[in-house]
Write a structure and sequence with these properties.
This protein has eleven helices and eight strands. By secondary structure, the protein is of the alpha/beta class. The protein has one domain (2-210): Aldolase class I (TIM Barrel), CATH 3.20.20.70. The chain binds erythose-4-phosphate (E4P).
C-alpha cells in the first residue's frame, strides 16, 4: 500500500520524508492556502522533496481554462499529478489530458458511478473522500469497498486512493478493503506511530533488564 502525506507544509514534509514511509503528497487549494502567496515556489519545493507523485489541484473553473492550467501544472515537474474535481463539464477535459499523457487524480469522488466514469477515462488515481461521507452520517468506508469491487470487476487500472482520512480506523479498513493508496494528514500519521501496549511493553522489558544490573547484552 502506498502512503501519501496530505499536506502542503514543507517543514512537515521534510520531517516525514525522513521516515522512508512517504510515497507521495496530496495537496488541495485549502491546504495550499495555508502556505502563503508564493504557491509556485512552494509546489516546486515539494516536488523536489518527494520522490513520488505530488497531486496539485487546478483552481480554474471554465473547462478550457482547466485544460490549460492542467498543462501548466504538469510542466512544473515530472512527478506532478494534476488533481481535477469530478464535474460533468470536466470529463472531456480529463479525456484530452489523459491522451496528452498527463497523469490525473480525480478528486471529490462520492459515488461508485463517479469512480466508474473517471476509471473509463483512464485517470491514474481515484480519490473518494471517506471522512466527508462520515460527516454527513454515511459510512465512508463502504465507498472504498464498492469502488474496489467495481475496479476489479472490469480490470480498470486506476489506483484507488483513500482520501479525507480522519482517524486510524479509516486507514485500518482502507488497507483491509484493498485501497491502493491512503493519503494521511500529518497529525493522524503521528498517532499511527504509537501503541500504548508497545510503550508499556518496552518499559517492562527495560525495568526487568535493569534488575540484572548488567549493561551489555553480549
Ligand atoms: C485528498 O486528496 C484531500 O486533500 C484530503 O484528503 C481532503 O481531506 P479533508 O476532507 O479532511 O479536507
Amino acid at each position: 500500500m502506498k502512503l501519501f502525506l496530505d499536506t502542503a507544509n514543507r517543514e512537515l514534509i521534510k520531517e516525514w520524508v525522513k521516515t522512508g514511509l512517504i510515497d507521495g503528497i496530496t495537496t488541495n487549494p485549502s491546504l495550499l492556502s495555508k502556505e502563503g502567496p508564493n504557491t509556485k515556489a512552494v509546489l516546486l519545493d515539494i516536488c523536489n522533496m518527494v520522490p513520488g507523485d505530488v497531486s496539485i489541484e487546478v483552481v480554474k473553473k471554465e473547462p478550457e481554462a482547466v485544460y490549460k492550467q492542467a498543462h501548466q501544472i504538469a510542466s512544473l515537474a515530472s512527478n506532478v499529478v494534476v488533481k481535477i474535481p469530478f464535474k460533468k463539464e470536466y470529463l472531456p477535459v480529463i479525456k484530452r489530458l489523459v491522451s496528452d499523457g498527463i497523469s490525473i487524480n480525480a478528486t471529490l469522488i462520492f459515488s461508485v458511478i463517479q469512480a466508474l466514469l473517471v476509471a473509463k477515462l483512464g485517470v491514474k488515481y481515484i480519490s473518494p473522500f471517506i471522512g466527508r461521507w462520515d460527516d454527513i452520517d454515511i459510512d465512508g468506508l463502504t465507498l472504498i469497498e464498492e469502488i474496489r469491487q467495481m475496479l476489479d470487476n472490469y480490470g480498470y487500472e486506476s489506483e484507488l486512493l483513500a482520501a479525507s482520512i480522519r482517524h486510524m480506523i479509516h486507514l485500518h479498513h482502507s488497507a483491509l478493503l484493498g485501497a491502493d493508496v491512503a493519503t494521511i494528514p500529518p497529525n493522524i500519521f503521528d498517532k499511527l506511530m504509537e501503541h500504548p501496549l508497545t510503550v508499556q511493553g518496552i518499559e517492562k522489558f527495560d525495568s526487568d533488564w535493569k534488575k540484572l544490573g548488567k549493561e551489555d547484552l553480549i
